[in-house]
Amino acid sequence: MISPHSGARCRRSWRWQTRTVTITATSPHARLLDRLGDLAEIVDTSNLTRALYSSDASLYRVQPDAVAHPRTPDELITLVRAALDVGVPITARGAGTSCAGNAVGPGLVIDVARHLNRIHSIDPETRTAVIDPGVVQDQLQQAARPFGLRLGPDPSTSNRCTVGGMIGNNACGPRALGYGRMADNVVSLDVVTGNGDLITLGTDDVPELRTLVAANLGIIRTEFGTFIRQVSGYSLEHLLPEKGFDTAKFFSGTEGTLGVIVRATVRLVADAPERLMVALGYPAMADAGDDISNLLRFKPTACEGLDRRIVDVVAAKIGPESVAGLPAGDGWMFLEVVGDDPAEVRSRAEAVVQASAATEGQVIEDPARAAQLWKIRADGAGLAGVSLAKPAYGGWEDAAVPPQHLGQYLREFDKLLERHNLHGLPYGHFGDGCVHCRIDFPLTDRDGAARYKDFVEEAAVLVARFGGSMSGEHGDGRARSALLPHMYSPAAIELFGQVKHIFDPRGLLNPGVLVDPAPVEQDLRMVAVSRSPLSSSAAEFVEAVHQCSGVGKCLADTTGTGGVMCPSFQATRNEKDSTRGRSRVLQEMVNGSLITQGWRSPEVHAALDLCLSCKGCARDCPTGIDMAAYKARVTHETYKGRLRPRNHYALGWLPRWGRLITTIPGLGKLINVVGRTPVLGRALRWGAGVDRRREIPQFASRAARSRPIRSSGGAPAKSKGRVLIWVDSFSDCFESTTFAAMAQLLVRLGYEPEVLRETACCGLTWISTGQLDGARRQLSNAAAVMATFVEAGVPIVGVEPSCTAVWRSDAPELLPDDPNVAALDGAVLTLAEFLESDSDFTPPDLSGHTIVAQPHCHHASVLGWAKDRAILESTGADLVVVGGCCGLAGNFGVERGHHEVSVKVFEHDLGPAVEAHPDAIVLADGFSCQTQLTSLAGRASMSLAELLATHDAG
């Protein structure tokens, strides 16, 4: 028996059929599905979905047997009770951003994030909110903001982590000094226990637990609650009589091992109106750690520490200007002081500087500069995992010690890394004594698991020596539960088991975590990878897809701030359509035990099907995932030496067909007419694999390159020299005036623009359809032609952003040893990049106009759009920059099976933007963006070249 709703299938279901786990009639899961009846439709047993949920943001991989997506609290309660009745283990999961392996498990994984995300009420009088467990933290912040309130803890994953997950891990974030841990912000919790009981913690009594606490007061008073970041284990100190036997606070940090949260009432806080940042520089980070106890008396709300290792990574990856203005030193501490009185806050900030032992201290009054310094810490955290010579991991991620021991702990920790020949990039919440570190554990070596265990065991001993906690905010999970005996007495460990037995006597809730833990080296994902044949035959690909740490930034909607990643997930809200989901499926393909057919596995193609190849992840993903490149590689390997789908020949070879059509007189007009006729048009679309609802773009009557370059007059008398306009296949073969406008503009500025008469195609359509051998041939030929211009010192300006971007990303990756490709890297410019160096160029005055600008995805993600923005802002127009993707994305949006998602992506950002500004100038450089605007909104758009050519600066 299988679930009647057994997972997503690729749109081309005749070709890629996903498979489901075999469930026998007597298995617990068969009994679960039978017990659920019609509700079994929320349970998914497909191998695809099991692969998606086999990992979280930790080192661990555990295959679930099924995944459920309950739609209402009642469905969640029924589901949990049914699973308990038939003996199926349960792991509750929010956003899956757990760094410790708290959100993976055998049996049934329950995803509460997809549907259980309702904010039931916000009470500004009591400063509380009643919410479902799947509410995202930023969602709650936005709802509470009109009341001047917010949820206190603010982990770095706030734009996608769920509040239920924050409660499960007892999350903190950098401002726990001011707002406390999640436990300090919980009022009451409705939970289903391992007995199937629905109770309200914070209101209902738990007599057995009260009796157990009364019998163990000495242990609890001496071993628990010793400092704020003692997150490891069960926080039994909240159950002491003097703490009011607060079961809701106690439940925070129990990591889903005692119950499943159905509803939560959380406390909200008001932000102080005044804040200042203090930046302190020290000779070393450990010196900053020595100083923190001295500075806590000034009551900072945040205190973050880092050193030269992180700063150098940020400078190398983002640019030296990103770390400019730091105080002198090699270790730094950033503090935040807040209050109601500006003078008092200023006085306190100055007192911090005076009292510190820093080499140099600064009070940062400029909010922009403060944001830039805080960003060093945030960017460094994101880059930590991909900036060492070898991949770095978070297995020893968030240990904490009492702040008075922090400096000495940091010194000893560096010595420990050195003894084990490991490297790390430590940083952390110094005010709480919490240190994060990504470490280059040799997990794929033959003895990798053993070496990992040896290190974390020694690290646990070190932390315990300083009276610290194995975890300071992420929980213990599979990474640290087995290390708890280093921190707690045998009596305390036994007490954990007794507490677990009260709530979950059969051990079905998140088994292997906290009580009866799995060994730390068990189920390590990268150890299993080392046994895959692909680790030898496709080593670079394997390493690339495993860069995804699971942190899940792709789940967040960042388009409002200019983000692109991940448009398909924003359209479907399905994990398989996220960058992380696709990475997980590719990782399982490498592993080979769940997804078993390698490159041709149907689960892989189902996950990649709705990838728009926008390259948003190449810029926006903190771990550097490039799913467009992975999709091209998978498609290439799948069809190597085999007959391909017809759209690969029609759309993948489009430049060939375009050259043929525009070479033969009258053929372009004929095809345009055919495309508009009902019967022949449908046949043409079918043959090309194009959705019947799409219009075929109009071919030009002759190639753009064959037309003479004309001046509109007004060119300077003295020539500034030659410029090659590299005309791509889209601009060359379809109706467009961008090339003509660019030529006109360059002539007006005094240049001598010219075009290639030889064919020089970048192979983009071959790349997007996974025909990589053909793409290499196209690129090699084009590079040989174009490199001669670079050698002659002739600037090259591209017309189409997606094709221009190929020379900066795909070409060096596909032809790393081609000297012509190397010569072109960074030499094929956008128009804005070229104009930046021309001192005579003056943008037109467009004051009084509104420009709605849609940066092409590849333009924003690969080339960078900052110079375009600068030109547009200098025109004086009101500029509205649209984030996200237009939804067409080359051949994606026109292909059969993609139309609905293409439209949804358009409706997420670009559609509403142009609808909100009906009289605006719409600027779109990408051929896809222009086509989508015309097709779905009936709006004409112009490129930057057309805007500048038609509006004289004079």
Helices and strands, with pairings:
Elements: H1 28-36, E1 43-44, H2 47-52, E2 66-68, H3 73-86, E3 90-93, E4 108-111, E5 119-123, E6 128-131, H4 137-144, H5 163-169, H6 176-179, E7 186-193, E8 198-201, H7 207-214, H8 217-223, H9 247-251, E9 259-267, E10 274-282, H10 285-295, E11 302-307, H11 308-318, E12 331-339, H12 342-355, E13 360-364, H13 367-383, H14 406-419, E14 424-429, E15 434-439, H15 448-465, H16 477-480, H17 490-503, H18 525-529, H19 534-537, H20 539-545, H21 567-572, H22 579-591, H23 602-608, H24 616-620, H25 627-639, H26 646-650, H27 654-663, H28 667-676, H29 678-688, E16 722-726, H30 729-733, H31 738-748, E17 752-754, H32 764-768, H33 772-791, E18 796-798, H34 801-806, H35 810-814, H36 819-824, E19 828-829, H37 831-836, E20 850-854, H38 857-863, H39 866-874, E21 878-881, H40 899-908, H41 910-916, E22 921-924, H42 927-937, H43 944-950
Parallel strand pairs: 2-4, 3-4, 16-17, 16-18, 18-19, 20-21, 20-22
Antiparallel strand pairs: 1-2, 5-6, 6-9, 7-8, 7-9, 10-12, 10-13, 11-12, 11-14, 14-15
Helix pairs in contact: 1-3, 10-14, 11-13, 14-15, 22-23, 31-43
Walk me through the structure.
With 954 residues, the chain is an alpha/beta fold. It is built from 43 helices and 22 strands. A six-stranded antiparallel β-sheet has the order 13-10-12-11-14-15. Strands 5-6-9-7-8 form a five-stranded antiparallel β-sheet. The chain is globular. It starts with 27 loop residues before the first helix and ends with a helix.
